[in-house]
Amino acid sequence: MINYIWFFILFVGILIGIVTGRGADITKAIVDGADYPVKMILGMAGMLCMWCGVMNIGEKSGLTEKLANIMKPLLKILYKSAGKDEKALGAIVMNLTANMLGLSNAATPFGIKAMEEMQRLNPKKDTASNDMSLFLVMNAACIQLIPSTVISIRASAGSKNPGMIIIPAIAATSLAAIVGIISCKILEKYF
Predict the structure, then answer these.
(1) Labelling 75: which of 36, 150, 155, 178 has CA 20 to 30 A away?
(2) Cα–Cα distance, 47 to 156 (Å, whole number)
(3) What's the distance, Cα to Cα, between the start and end of the chain in Å?
(4) How would residue 47 be classed by pLDDT, with cut points 50, 70 and 90?
């Protein structure tokens, strides 16, 4: 359905542009619209490579493990059954830690593994457990200590200070994670 809506909007816009004699403006807008994203992606690629390198150094240096050790006691409290299982808790910790450090490419396999481990512990195989739901919420609202993707986008768009987003990102993602966790814990009691 949404495809039809978008087609209708584009078709009517182009038709009105042609009827009003602005065909050249439409052509220019189409060319410019196709050109800008390519330039932006190329600009982002360098920044993302740099940040991925920095994050990999942090991972190899043991920073990820240290952060994981700090998080484990809190996660044992939050996750009822997964908190008692070392395999599940280990995958959860590694996923959240990698996401916090902006290593989303490293976080994905840990997230899949965490869900598989929690499914193994799940008594109702056709329904997501409370731990699985909590993990999805925490993963979606994951606290970003270094929002490397946003920094890269800001840098490629010509921002004078692309790193200025770090403190607001930490505040916003922390608040989102806290609200998400509280909401999950409240809803667990009713569903």
Answers:
(1) 150
(2) 8
(3) 33
(4) low
For 117, the token pair is: 């481990």
Q: Which residue type is seen at 4?
A: Y
> Which two tokens mark 86?
């070392």
The 10s digit of each residue's pLDDT in 128-160 is: 999 999 999 998 888 888 787 788 788 878 889
Residue whose tokens read 């052509």 = 27
User: Which DSSP letter does residue 102 get?
Assistant: T
Domain boundaries, the chain: 2-188
Helices of type H across the chain: 2-19, 23-60, 63-78, 86-100, 104-121, 130-140, 148-156, 166-188
Please state, in angstroms and rounded to a whole number, the distance separating the CA atoms of residues 112 and 107.
9
Rounded CA-CA distance 91/109 in Å is: 9
The pLDDT of residue 53: 76
Cβ contact 136:103 at 8 Å: no
